[in-house]
Amino acid sequence: MVEKGVSPTVETYNLLINGYGQRGHFVRCFEFLDEMDKAGIKPNVISHGSLINCLCKDRKLIDAEIVLADMIGRGVSPNAERYNMLIEASCSLSKLKDAFRFFDEMIQSGIDATLVTHNTLINGLGRNGRVKEAEDLFLQMAGKGCNPDVITYHSLISGYAKSVNTQKCLEWYDKMKMLGIKPTVGTFHPLICACRKEGVVKMEKMFQEMLQMDLVPDQFVYNEMIYSYAEDGNVPKAMSLHQQMVDQGVDSDKVTYNCLILAYLRDRRVSETKHLVDDMKAKGLVPKVDTYNILVKGHCDLKDFNGAYFWYREMVDGGLLLNASMCYQLISGLREEGMLREAQIVSSELSSRGLNN
Length: 357
Known about the structure:
The chain is mostly helical. It has 20 helices and no strands. InterPro entries: PPR_P_subfamily, PPR_rpt, TPR-like_helical_dom_sf.
């Protein structure tokens, strides 16, 4: 371009900074800023903004703040979007002190905080267990005429779910419905999790409300519901819901199969767990330690030590290790069952890991 006598513009450099920044080549980005200086091309808010965004995504918060200071030093006024990038990066790193420092700085600079600003801070506070402060910020936000949206409510519900406060989760859920703000499928993730401690009936009620809103449950929701039925040993409900999941075109994952295996074991249907594992493998889902732990523990709890040893053997032969406490339980059960050879094998394999029985 330069060789042909075409001079690069600020837009040209902006594209280069963004492109190199997305690839993590930040040294080159700073070189472009220097080149712009030498060529008498003044960087604009996009030049710095692209670099700040890329640095934030790469978790280089200090460097991003240096770029912000450089931007201001060059007389380029940052906007709310630039501050939002820094606030979001700070929150994602749980650096809430920095997030609120940027928030205060933007307000003092006469830049109005946006809905995105408030949502990011509320979410950051909630994820770090500071739900009361998140609620206070919500009230301040509403007082400034910044209307909350579904993301705001989702963040508060998630925060209270993380703090294991089901009552507050449901209160905020009711508030958003009263205001005509329709929850998303994602909103039901923390709601259903929060309702788990209230029992499967409460979870079912939430699940039905979701369906009445014409929302299609996703993999996470189905897995949570199937797990709740598995915990109750309600195989018919678990299998029925799994079939509904399949009919809706929602893929089953390893968590789904773990839940179904647990359901069968709770219902003492040990022979059918093999079919589930085979089906799981046929779909390209390779059982890992968590699946085998469920299988071995489930068979041990049912005093089916022959079955427990079968799964233990498959697990070890596949290069996976059962946790020590389960090994001890299995060895004890095998001895009680008179399967002394198998007990000795497990004991020897445990000793080879430096653990004594």
